[in-house]
Design brief:
This protein is 4% helix and 33% strand. By secondary structure, the protein is mainly beta. It has one domain. A hairpin with a 5-residue loop joins strand 6 and strand 7. It is globular, with a radius of gyration of 14 Å.
Length: 90
Amino acid sequence: MPAWIPVTERTPSDGERCICYLPNNEVFLPGKSGAKEARPIVILRFAEDFFLKNPSKTGYNGSPHLWLGEGTSNRFFNEVTHWMPLPEAP
């Protein structure tokens, strides 16, 4: 299995799906209790220069990159600390 790659060393190719590590990621559990669960590992798609191609209407001026969620919400670039390519299918 590939090793974790820090985003400070290298980013994936534009549009590449990856296993990502978000150390502070929490999700609400089903129901209306408000309970949360830590889920630091998710699959996201890297969007290089997303905010250069799609300027923010909110005044966001951070990294131009974005992680696109698949069944989860999108993530700002700085929320992901490490990533790795998806393994080959069996």
